[in-house]
Amino acid sequence: MKRIYFLSFFALLFVVTSCKHQVYLTISDPPIVFLEKEYETAGVINRTFSSGAGKVVDIVDNALSLEGKLDETGSNAAAQGMFDELTTNKRFTYVALLDSMTLDNRAADIFPAPMDWNEVQQICDANGVQVLFVLEVFDTDTKVNYDMQMVNQNTPLGSVQVPRHRATSTTRITTGWRIYDPKNKIIRDEYFVRDRISKTGSGINPVKALSAIMGRDQIVKNLSTQMGRAYASRVRRQYFRVYRDYYNKGSRNLKIARRRADLNDWDGAAELWLKDTESPKRKVAGRACHNMAVYSEIQGDVYAAQEWAQKAYVDYNIKYSKKYGQILSNRVYRIERNNRLEQNDNQN
User: Fold this and answer.
1) Fewer CB within a 10 Å sphere, N or C end of the chain?
2) What is the pLDDT of residues 191-241, one digit of tens each?
3) What is the CA radius of gyration of the chain?
4) Across the chain, which distance is largest between two alpha carbons, in Å?
């Protein structure tokens, strides 16, 4: 009986999931952090180095956590990644990578007190920049898990059991960034970017296992560079590769439209979907409305897509359209917010 229920469940699951098909598309959203057009120059600073008592704490922490100089290597790489991205994304006409700064009694993974605005203005004036992108937090926290088990190994004397020691290190990287706007004396953005890397080594003894997980500097450096680039992307238009589900079953038109969509004839598919939005069958009409939302987003009309998705859920109770509608509403909110900011910028 359990076997029958098990097979029935997966048969039902197959029927439900096979009613939809996926399409991949690239969407664009406004910058997460808006900066007026007048801001054309920027400086990048690494402010994560400690001095005084904080320096002693860092040395002890690094020794205990097997980090060595990972914080120094990683923070410089993160700042460099930020600089590289800001230079290549053409948001600014000039970007300067400025000298690093030290901070007394800096905590490892929380934001320090903001820089004094007079100091910010002096740095900007001295280097010919308008805003500062500052790496305020950089911390690597390394944990090592160790285990040992007996494994079979072929030898001239036959298969024998030998110990295998395995060590796995997990390094969590935390970066914290601020954007200082000295003209308005406001911090435009304050944001954490976090990631992690793992490395596993094994050997016939603990020394061999641990030696295999050493040499993480380059890995941390590469990942930190990517994290710096990722934060820099917050000030430019965002591009995402996403997928959307649309319905391909329920009526003859939905089936034919699926084949048209397979041939990239989205206008032809939409012609049939639009007809089915008037279907007397509620499920068919609801699915067609949902598909029209997908078509509208493909065409770049997010507002129409939102209206169709809301109609599919509100009028026809298409459950999947509720989640899709929320995604579209978030996109509309970001677009309208950016439009308001740009309009104010143009008026000024």
Assistant:
1) N
2) 999 998 877 767 666 666 556 556 667 888 999 999 999 999 999 888 889
3) 28
4) 86
Report the alpha-carbon distance of residue 49 to residue 136 in Å, rounded.
9
Sequential DSSP letters for 17-59: HTTEEEEEEEEEE--SS---TT--EEEEEE--EEETHHHHHHH
CB 124: neighbour CB atoms within 10 A?
22
Number of neighbours of residue 282 by Cβ within 10 angstroms: 12
Judged against a pLDDT cut of 60, whether residue 291 lies above it is answered with yes
Separation of alpha carbons 173 and 53, rounded Å: 23
Q: Is 308 left (phi over 0), alpha (psi -120 to 50) or beta?
A: alpha
343/151 Cα distance (integer angstroms): 68
- The rounded distance, in Å, linking the Cα atoms of 289 and 263 is 21
CB atoms within 10 A of CB 270: 21
Indicate the helix (H) or strand (E) that contains 337: helix 319-347
The sign one gets for the Cα dihedral 306, 309, 311, 313 is negative
- What whole-number distance in Å separates Cα of residue 5 and Cα of residue 7? 6
Structure tokens at 173: 């990287």
- Average pLDDT on 75-96 reads 93
- Asked whether 275 and 294 are in contact (CB, 8 A), the reply is no
- d(Cα 19, Cα 14) in Å, to the nearest integer? 9
Q: Look at the alpha carbons of 204, 206, 209, 211 in this order and tell me if their dihedral is positive or negative.
A: negative
> What are the C-alpha distances in Å from 105 to residues 70, 108, 241?
19, 9, 42
**Residue 318, both tokens:** 């298409």
pLDDT in tens, 99-134: 888 766 566 678 999 999 999 999 999 999 999 999
